[in-house]
Specification:
This protein is an alpha/beta fold. It is about 35% helix and about 15% strand. The protein has helices at about 10-25, 40-45, 75-90, 105-110, 115-125, 140-145, and strands at about 1-5, 30-35, 55, 95-100, 130-135, 145-150. A six-stranded parallel β-sheet has the order 3-2-4-5-1-6, with helices on both faces.
Amino acid sequence: MIQTYFGNGKGKTTAAVGSAVRCAGCGNKVLFVQFLKNNDSAEFKVLEKINVIDVLCSDEHYELYDNRNKDRTPALVKAYNKLLFEDTKNKSASYQMIVLDEILDAVEYGYVDVNNLLELLAEIKVHSEIILTGHTLIEGIADESDYISEIKEINHPYTKGVSPREGIEF
């Protein structure tokens, strides 16, 4: 099945991490793949310590705001497509759960083609529970999702000028 967590509120990755930990707690293998982040969020330090969870990130590390820099688009397309269609696809049969964190944003920004992603999802959902996260729900993804949860911001410290806090937002 495919689970999709989307919206502008805090908690999409946190929900995915919780699902990954729950799955691992039952002895299942989890592949947690991260897109569009700078690969240094604190949750990954913990996930990497759990024997049945493998974390994959791009071979190349980018600053968070590189994702909106049009000059970086060709490099990001190459890196994220390798991460998804080579690294993830080649390993997918070994996992009971695959988390594609921020994949919806990678599609929205044009780094990953939605039709190619849908083909991959059809292939890997046969043997794995899939979790997708991102800000925008994409039409084709919505049609294929078995669960869809919207995480909506009602209030957030950013709007009051509070900087992200280590251990809370990253």
